[in-house]
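Researcher: Here's the sequence for the chain we discussed earlier.
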Amino acid sequence: MNNYLKLFIFSAVVVGAYFGLLASGFGQYIHSTAIATIIFYSLQSLLLLWAESIFVNNDGQNFVLFVIGSISFRLLTSLLVAITYLVAIGEENTSFIMTFFALYLLFLGFELFTLMTNLRSNSKSVQIDG
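Model: Thanks. This is the structure I predict for it:
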């Protein structure tokens, strides 16, 4: 299955879970910016999937560097957005932090799962001299 289709399905499942939690009475624990956060992480994942298709060679030589770089990119941009929001609002907002980083972990897990499925195909093409 295409990684872009996997991202679309995963994002749709997360949005469905969001609305399911709202309907079940857990809406008080979810911050109102959750949909914007889901869109942010979906666009971030889309960008990283696109970058993977461009920067990872067919021989898999720079695959590990890309994985480390993509995790670092996701962490730094997420921290930047979260800190910017918290400074702009100027108040303590525990529900925002919990929602934001719960979604961060979900999308990070999706990214790692998607990248690791490509690891097997990349590791088969690498020849070990010796």
